[in-house]
Amino acid sequence: MKFWQAITWAETDQLLDIARFAEDLGFHGLMSGDHAVYPESIEAHYPYSENGLPPMRPNDEYPDQTAIFAAMAAVTKTLRFTCGVYVLPLRNPHEVARASATLTILSDNRFILGIGVGWMKEEFDIYGVDFRKRGKITDEMIEVLHKLWTGEMVEHHSENFSFPRVQLSPAAASPPRIYVGGTSDIALRRAARAGNGYIGAGTAPADVKPLLSRLDTLRGEYKREQLPFEAMLGIADTPSRELYQRLAEDGLDSTVAPPFQYALGKKRSTLDEKKRFMEDYAENILRHF
């Protein structure tokens, strides 16, 4: 099993040291979080809590993904990087294609584009993007990205994106991998149909095996069961060696250690506190797999 460390809300000025230390300990990668903007007032429609209220606050840090991944890749050699998840339909496909291709090249293919459709309507309103169309925009954008990543002269004409013949350079020798996040059946279908992997947040241990089975079934429906595919799930339970041994037997490919805010029980923490948590996690869990 592969083990990732969540760095969502971690202090930005600590990230390079976290990356170096995580690599030394044997973590497979780091997973960040994303919001384009964070409004002062938000309706209670967060999908991953019972009361609909998000756990984050406006002063929680959401640094630019391109900048942090490039910086962390520059000080490591094996560590992978992804976002769980990047709100794709808010962004311009040409900018995403260029940034992700460049990151893939500079990181020696250690970058994964983790995407989702987003849940915060206010964020879409501020960007001037129709929240109701975010799923369709995402599907069209994935198609556009794959065209641009060929590095050839391409054009595209659809409901949401239309452009004449253009060429992206530099293009990576292998296109960036796309992992799709979300809990709806539509999200699972998108992962099975168009993704190289799936990112799940807060999955109950009892739900892991049925979820993996559902993804396998859907990949079969889309005739993609023969292609490489990774399910990366954050588990809604106390981390333990025994827990992950059971989940590995259920077929789980990789998992994510909780964000430091959850693991340490406070909003802010020192670099040394984060290192101690990662060291304990590596000693008690990671090194037994």
Summarize it.
GO terms for molecular function: oxidoreductase activity. Residues 12-256 form the Luciferase-like domain. The protein is 39% helix and 18% strand.
Shape, principal axes of CA atoms? globular
**Element pattern in H and E:** EHEHEEHEHHEEEHEHEHEHH
* CA(first)-CA(last) distance: 6 Å
Instruction: Compute the CA-based radius of gyration.
Output: 19 Å
Helical stretch count?
10
Which parts are unreliable, with pLDDT below 50 for 5 consecutive residues or more? none
Report the strand count: 11
CATH topology: TIM Barrel
Helix % is 25-40%
CATH superfamily: Luciferase-like domain
Q: Please identify the top-level CATH class.
A: Alpha Beta
Major sheet: size, sense and barrel closure?
9 strands, parallel
**Under the CATH scheme, which architecture would be assigned?**
Alpha-Beta Barrel
User: Which class do the helix and strand fractions yield?
Assistant: alpha/beta
- Strands of the widest sheet, in order across it, are 3-2-1-11-10-9-8-5-4
Task: Please tell me the overall pLDDT.
Answer: 96
How much of the sequence is in beta strands? 15-25%
Indicate how many domains the architecture comprises: 1
Organism: Candidatus Marimicrobium litorale
Keywords: Flavoprotein, FMN, Monooxygenase, Oxidoreductase
Protein name: TIGR03619 family F420-dependent LLM class oxidoreductase
InterPro entries: Lucif-like_OxRdtase_Rv2161c (IPR019921), Luciferase-like_dom (IPR011251), Luciferase-like_sf (IPR036661), SsuD_RutA_monooxygenase (IPR050172)
